[in-house]
# Entry
Amino acid sequence: MRFSPRSLQVANQSSLVLRKNVSIINNFLQTELLLEPECEGKERLLGILHRAGKRDLSLSDCEMLPTWQQVTDLYGDKPIIRGLETCQAYRDSLQGREPDPRVAGLFNTGTNAFVELLQLNFEMKDRHDYTAPNGKHTSLKYKNWSNSPRNETGDHVDAFVIALIRDPFRWMKSMCKSHYKARWLKGLDRRCPNLVPNSDESKMNRLRNAATFRVTLNRTFYMEEYDSLADMWSEWYKLYVNATFPRLIIRFEDTLFHADQVMESIMDCIGRPLQKRVRNHLDASKHHGKSTDFLEALAKYGRADGRDAGLQAQDRVYAQTALDQEVMRMFHYPQVAVAESAKEMLSLAANASDETQVN
# Structure
């Protein structure tokens, strides 16, 4: 097969683009694709899709995807993994036994997709379950590890929990679509996410004197209660951040954009270094609730568009303090913008409320 001088020039230019972006899209048709204006700045994401097994990359895929700059503007250019300092203690505790990675996380944090990622890359004989003991969605406050292996002192040692955390603003929007066992009143016209009643909602009988939209989770043996969705997210993850037992906390977003580094870090942590290239899963990973496939996830969660959609002024102000600031900073999750007028309005309202109570 012979190429025209123009085709050879295209191939040479594409080769430079590929080397610069560490892409492995290496056939002639795909390298031509990268020269399309719609694909500019998206080479790394196309490489991620190619490594995951998508061989029919097209111009429409480029049009869907964000640029790599949009991704890094939101979440930085490297994965954030907390708890790596606990890995040595976990490996020492095994004393020759097989490592036992387990997955935990709130509803809608990508736990099903991550279980599939583990299944594809962590080869263990007779493996049947990657769910954290006592349930992957259960708060640490209510865990007793009763269903997991223990050593002679009664301490749980074998299950190594990997907790997934997700951008709270994206997470709240997903909870509006699939709330699972969580229950809370919606705002007027079913608005959601909703954290704080607005002036009209506060006049409703069921919300009178309510400072927030409270959330409850009815479990089999207990009930969880939170001031709001934002409070639920904060309380759940603060327990993992402050835990003293060996565990990792990994951003859901990094399982999409940095899967190779994430899996390498996990396997090194538990003492089972990867022996081959990381494999990923292209299809939707759960068959309940609302789910997206791998391409849709990269397209949706790699840009800021729509991240704060639906939040009203009072919700935005409340989120500034209800979302734990330490956890937000630790995982590089940016706060949403709050208009100065909204801050002043709510400050005046709070002062008026205080004066009314005094009188």
